[in-house]
Design brief:
This protein has about 400 residues and is an alpha/beta fold. It has 8 helices and 21 strands. It binds S-adenosylmethionine. S-adenosylmethionine binds near residues 249 and 313.
Length: about 400
């Protein structure tokens, strides 16, 4: 049983637990099985849950690729598959323009505390630390591979989709701790059953955390990193552990408190992280006015969001201005810029072209594509999101770009 990170009484949740707003389960204690729902049900579920922005295109080549599951689980491998490289000529005699590499399929193969065990019929079966969870997944359009007994052994299921049950909620088949710990590299963090299916980490982002880590090591100098929409802080803690000076921005006080608890759990309290609760757009506009710059910028915006004072974030409306500001915040010898997106209607190509437009004049490379999770011991990939990322050329260690 895990202790409250604040040192309070241990918090435990079981099938009859009735504590806590959206997370409470008033239903009778009962087991559950993997839902084998119909196409109609899935269509209705999609219509009812427009906030489920996770997804992208299915990789038809995935089934023919070799299974990479035999790699060691403690060192998560990121595989970049057969990118098409398009070199862009400079747009003017004065400027160079980043080269383009796309499409890039980045695979996240799981790690000690995370595995995609199976997926199908609109759901996924995952392991987060010691718990097996079932969550809705619109992109899981095929059939489950594992026997039903595996799905029945899950500790919790998020059901949000059955009309008579109203908005989504967790149901617990076994006794579970309300908060439990997981690890990724030097970071220890709390998992927690949140309303709207999340548990406090987007595990596929591990591939991006690793890429950011590579950029920091490549630069071989202390970098100033800005993490916008930083949530529970993994993309702030891991760069900080590598010596970066990090500014973390999120609109949610609760997310910042959680991120600080994760910093404490990780023993990284002495690392220089500025925790800022603000609207991301307002923050970057202010930083531009102040003339501040950063060597690396990470942004993982939602499709829709709200700043602390009700400021509206709408991916399609807001991203062009956000990237224009972010461009101004890149230091003369900046090392990287990473934007990921769960906005299902966007394509990595449009995010690529926008980033290329914004970064005109910089050397280096922009890669764009999809981020996918490979299932444990299985051949299939689950598309989660799209991304565009820019990195400086190799010789960018000290001189201006
Ligand atoms: C998709 S999550 C980011 C996930 C995170 N990058 C990670 O991998 O752990 C979106 C975050 O954006 C924050 N957010 C939403 N609207 C915002 C806004 N206008 N300004 C700042 N943060 C916002 C939410 O509070 C939430 O923590």
């Amino acid at each position: 049983m895990s202790k409250s990170p604040k040192g309070g009484a241990p918090r435990t949740r079981n099938a009859q637990s009735k504590k806590g707003g959206a997370r409470k389960d008033n239903g009778p204690k009962r087991g559950f099985s993997a839902k084998r729902d119909t196409r109609d049900n899935r269509d209705q579920r999609e219509a009812r849950n427009p906030r489920d922005t996770r997804g992208g295109k299915k990789d038809s080549a995935a089934a023919t690729r070799p299974n990479r599951r035999d790699q060691t689980r403690s060192a998560p491998a990121t595989t970049v598959v057969e990118p098409i490289v398009r070199e862009h000529k400079p747009t003017s005699a004065r400027f160079t323009t980043p080269a383009s590499v796309l499409p890039v399929m980045v695979e996240m193969n799981g790690w000690d505390d995370y595995a995609l065990l199976d997926m199908g019929h609109g759901q996924k079966l995952e392991r987060y630390g010691r718990y097996k969870l079932i969550r809705p997944e619109a992109q899981a359009m095929g059939a489950p591979r594992l026997p039903e007994s595996e799905w029945k052994s899950a500790d919790a299921i998020f059901t949000g989709d059955v009309e008579e049950e109203g908005p989504g909620r967790w149901k617990f088949a076994n006794q579970v701790d309300e908060i439990w710990q997981m690890k990724y590299g030097p970071a220890t963090f709390n998992g927690q059953f949140m309303s709207f299916r999340h548990v406090g980490v987007f595990p596929e982002q591990a591939a991006h955390w690793d890429w950011v880590g590579e950029q920091i090591k490549k630069a071989d100098r202390p970098l100033k990193v800005l993490n916008l929409f930083g949530y529970t802080g993994m993309a702030s803690l891991l760069p900080a552990a590598l010596g970066a000076q990090v500014t973390h921005v999120d609109a949610s006080k609760k997310a910042i408190v959680w991120a600080r608890e994760n910093q404490e759990l990780s023993g990284l309290e002495d690392k220089p992280i500025r925790w800022i609760c603000d609207d991301a757009m307002k923050f970057v506009e202010r930083e531009v006015r102040r003339g501040n710059t950063y060597d690396g910028i990470i942004l993982d915006p939602p499709k829709y969001g709200r700043g602390p004072n009700g400021e509206v974030w709408d991916f399609f409306e807001s991203v062009p201005h956000m990237l224009a500001c972010v461009r101004k915040l890149l230091s003369p010898n900046a090392q990287f810029l990473l934007m990921s997106s769960y906005a299902i209607r966007a394509s990595f190509l449009s995010s690529h072209e926008l980033m290329r437009e914004c970064l005109d004049g910089l050397p280096g490379t922009i890669e764009s594509g999809e981020l996918a999770i490979r299932e444990l011991d299985g051949p299939r990939l689950l598309s989660t999101s799209l991304f565009s990322r820019w990195s400086a050329p190799e010789n960018n260690k000290a001189e201006g770009a």
